[in-house]
Amino acid sequence: MSASTKLSTSVKVLCYLAEVHPMPKTSKMISEVIGVNASKLRKLLSMLSKQNIVKSTQGISGGFVLSKNPDLIHLQEIYCAIEDRKAFHLNVSKLNDNVNDRTVLFNNYFLNLFADVQVEIEDKMRYISLKNIMNELGIRFYYK
Questions:
Q1: pTM value?
Q2: What are the b/e assignments for 47-73, b being 16+ CB within 10 Å?
Q3: Regarding beta strands 54-57 and 63-66, do their DSSP bridges make them parallel or antiparallel, or are they unpaired?
Q4: Domains of the chain: which residue ranges?
Q5: Would the pLDDT of 122 be above 90?
Q6: Taking the domain 3-86+128-137, which CATH number applies?
Q7: Contact, 42 vs 27, CB < 8 A?
Q8: What whole-number distance in Å separates Cα of residue 123 and Cα of residue 119?
């Protein structure tokens, strides 16, 4: 799953959990509502749970619920919870012995550029909360 797909899927999941709060929903229920493979969804929910964005409850009526108010969950927090690498990535570890100074020069240029762009992306995401997204899309939630 690409970074943008994982992020958009995670946001859909979190919006749904905000809509149905405080009722826990199983990964199967969530996958049916948002139309995502349940096993991929469980991986995302596990990552979100490790960062205390969602929590799981056990038992017959168990499932996943939001851990905090949608106003306090920001895109940057979600992104960092689900991503193991940056949005812009240049793999320079696969360089062979025929690398010349020009290749190194270009690689360094793009490594620096991608690092700057990554910082800008994450800075922007810090100011976008789950509540902002839900309000913009006209999705009501009843988190208390």
A1: 0.81
A2: bbeeeebbeeeeeeeebbbbeeebeeb
A3: antiparallel
A4: 3-86+128-137
A5: no
A6: 1.10.10.10
A7: yes
A8: 6
